[in-house]
Predict the 3D structure of the following.
Amino acid sequence: MEQTNVLCVKPYCPLKAQNAGLFISRGAAVHPTRIIDSHELIFVKQGELDLWEGDQAFHLEAGDTLHLWPGRQHGGTNPMPLGLRFYWIHFEIEEPNARDKGGSGSDLAQIIRVPQVAHVCQPERLERLFRTFLDDQETGMLHPYSANLLTMLMLVEVAQTHEEKPANIDDLSVVATSAHTYIRLNFDRPITTSKVAEHLGYNADYLGRIYRQVYGCTLTEAIQRRRVREGCKYLLDTSMTIEQIAYKCGFTDPDYFRRVFRRYMQVSPGQYRDEYGHVHVNTH
């Protein structure tokens, strides 16, 4: 009997990806009012975006996502500011068959619950999925199976932000948000977890526990992620050297920047720039 070494797998994904892009606003334009036949996921990279769907209004900032439903009218509530950047992707969802509609326990366990609005804790992960999709779309190398699975992974990233939180999360989030805001505004300075806690007037261990409970990572990780996130922007949007970017993002040692960047992005800064430097961009 002839033996084959080829593994044959029948892929299945309940999503059918259509197309995606990176929108860059030139200022003044308002998102058009329309009804589309597909789902749309929007991920804001930079700036602020104001949209409405039906009778709901949404204000999105960097790191926020919005899911727009097919068949529902939506549009912009304010002109899109200069410098606004957001990723978008259109996709369809396969109708469940009769067995799935029965709602057995095993089926329900596999459901991914994607909130309509979310703030992504690790936006660099979601951006990398978009970049991969757009780069392959631009070069014509995007296989339909890959497109569908990448879209599913995007939804998984958004769904992971919608986990049930402790009952006292509202009280704790005030403290954690203060630390998060301080890091966002001062990441490019020589800050440490102790300096963040000292500035806010809290014990470092106490603040670290609260921050991890609310945001799911340590203060040190939050500082590094913010610096890496900004590093990604500089790598893709400027011609600065890696050394210049490292200093710009608050690192005093470019080699340490390279190590931290690889830890979170799984590639070096140079490889990231080479891989994701070309995307499909649309502007208004």
